[in-house]
Amino acid sequence: MLNQILELYGLQANDYKIIEFGSGLINHTWKVSGPKNYILQQINADVFKDPEALAENMALLETYFKQTAPDYLFVAPVKQVSGKYLVKTSDEGYYRLFPFIENSVTITEIKDQQEAFEAAQQFGKFTCLLRDFDLANLHYTLPQFHDLKLRFDQFKEACNVAKSDRLTIAGDAIKDIYKHQSVLFVYQQLMDHQQLPLRVIHHDTKISNVLFDQDHHGLCVIDLDTVMPGYFMSDVGDMLRTYLSPANEEERDFSKIQINEECFYAIYKGYVSAMGAALTATEKEYFTYSGKYMIYMQAIRFLTDFLNDDVYYHTTYAHQNLIRAQNQLMLLNQFIKSEKRFKKFIAYFSFKHTSVAN
Ligand code: GN1
Ligand code: MG
User: Fold this and answer.
1) Which of 63, 150, 181, 334 is packed most tightly, with the most Cβ within 10 A?
2) In the chain, where the domains are located
3) Is the model's pLDDT at 170 over the cut of 90?
4) CATH assignment of 113-357?
């Protein structure tokens, strides 16, 4: 099947080797090595119900970057001989091919704060370059993806339908979700008063979605399926969620979940350096909150999936989604312990830079 797909791109399958690649929980990815190297990806159509919308978004962004920032490295999908981007197979699978960016490096764990700075700068740059892009043209590839109210409602519904054994072992985690409900209230207030500008947002800012060069400078961002209109909180929050702790969401030894505060400062500086004056005062004010928002939402999503018998996130052992949810709740508690210092830093940093500017 994969060989036939390569042929559609005019590639001789015999010349290429296809091996599994990456660690995403949603799509299936392979590296295709041969005379030229590629990344082949199967879109998870259970999650992305409208794969054509993904392809259309990519094409729009590609055109926009070509016109407005031709030097920006935008990793657009490769066209088939037919001119189409998307391959639809007889078993309803959807695939696309990307060029593999030679000499680029991806990392799965942050080793030093400079990497966090570079990554934050890349995500900020992406959104900033697209600040005049007409949002009306962009499909919502996952409608209400980061709508915390919806995620909370889905969680409540899962509590209503969950099997009793799952409800019992998830009891403490469920209580913790209610304990932190203020995170939801702040979100609702922000949405009700429309305090944040809608922007082109990546929505999946984990470190493996940044390409680095050999010298560990950021090159660009990848994995663009969730690029759609949204709020800065999604990108900043997911960086805070996934970069600050040396132990990630799969860690089962929760004592290893800690907050590297230097890394927070690096993310702030990197994002602000790229967004510059485009970032509003309210966005700066809610920068720290965005971490709580995304960590809390991920805890809710993992727990909801556990209560729903693991229908969404791929699991490899029993109760994995519960452990992931508990892990994220631990991260939330640790994050909250640092919150005051984070806010102080932002106030000080903004003051220093305004004074210098004046
Ligand atoms: C999913 O598959 P991956 O790792 O790119 C999820 C993200 C979650 C993440 C948690 C479309 O992303 O929202 O944060 O798992 N993507 C989707 O690991 O649900
Ligand atoms: Mg992704």
Assistant:
1) 334
2) 2-99, 113-357
3) yes
4) 3.90.1200.10
